Amino acid sequence: MKKDLTYYMNLNYPTEFQKIVENDGETYYRVTIPKLPGLIAYGDTIDEGLVELEEAKKAWFSSCIRRNVKIPEPVQ
To answer: What is each CA distance from 48 to 15, 44, 53, 71, in whole angstroms?
Structure first.
């Protein structure tokens, strides 16, 4: 089976959230998938961060597939 963008997008990667509070009181969230180095998204809410993360995942996976870079998979 060829592992394509759809295959990777449907895998269940553990996600981490970090609430960030700036000096001026502004808050936002940093959302990452530790298994996928460099994949980071931000949002004013967790939900917004997750939407941004989905877009970032598409770009991240597409880039790896195009360059033939091995993509780590989550442990099931």
So the answer is: 14, 6, 9, 25
* pLDDT of 1 strictly over 80: no
What angle (nearest 5°) sits at the alpha carbon of residue 26, between those of residues 25 and 28?
A: 135
pLDDT digits (tens, 9 = 90+) for 3-28: 999 999 999 999 999 999 999 999 99
Beta bridge partners of 29: 19, 43
CA distances, 19 to each of 8, 25, 28, 56 (Å): 27, 12, 6, 19
CATH number for the 5-67 domain, one of 3.30.200, 3.30.160, 3.30.70, 3.30.450?
Answer: 3.30.160
Query: How much is the pTM?
Result: 0.86
